[in-house]
Design a protein that fits this description.
This is Nucleotidyltransferase family protein. Pfam families: NTP_transf_6. It comes from Rhodococcus triatomae. InterPro entries: NTP_transf_6. The chain has about 140 residues and is mainly alpha-helical. It has a domain of about 100 residues. Helices cover about 45% and strands about 5% of the residues. It has five helices and four strands. The protein has a two-stranded antiparallel sheet. The protein has a two-stranded antiparallel ribbon with strand order 3-4. A hairpin with a 2-residue loop joins strand 1 and strand 2. The longest helix is centred in the last third of the chain and has 14 residues. It is globular.
Length: about 140
């Protein structure tokens, strides 16, 4: 993919973070579409008629890391966590509460520091093994 004069490849993944937001979103979508397992999971999710479903972030960021490091898009991804909330309250405040609850249950939805330290250490050790060029920040 050519973006604003740069070739966004594993040799220049740092370029992606400096692109305008809409181009970053396009690059993100392109990376995710390379993971056929992820696309299949999303296709199947739409047929389940689940209320308020979300795909947790772990499989998303791991797909991106694989793409920018020239690995198969689904390499090392152990699972694709889908969760949903069967709740009749569809207000914005109820939706926000569900998201916050989901972040507590599924720590990989957001930054790993939401998980207990033992979980953070285990996940980051596995990620560092999988993606050796990954920079792991120390536990705060």
């Amino acid at each position: 993919m050519t973006v604003t004069g740069y070739r966004a490849t594993a040799q220049r993944p740092d370029v992606l973070g400096r692109l305008p937001g809409d181009e970053q979103l396009d690059a993100f979508r392109e990376a995710l579409c390379r993971n056929t397992t992820l696309v299949d999971v999303l296709d199947r999710c739409t047929t389940l008629d689940l209320p308020h479903w979300y795909l947790a972030g772990g499989c998303l960021f791991q797909t991106v890391w694989n793409v920018v490091t020239n690995r198969p898009p689904d390499e090392g991804i152990r699972d694709y966590d889908l969760f949903y909330f069967d709740d009749t309250d569809t207000s914005w405040s109820a939706e926000d509460a569900r998201i916050r609850a989901g972040r507590t249950v599924f720590a990989d939805l957001s930054a790993p520091v939401l998980a207990p330290r033992t979980v953070y250490d285990a996940k980051t050790a596995r990620w560092k093994h999988q993606w050796p060029t990954l920079t792991v920040l120390p536990w705060p």
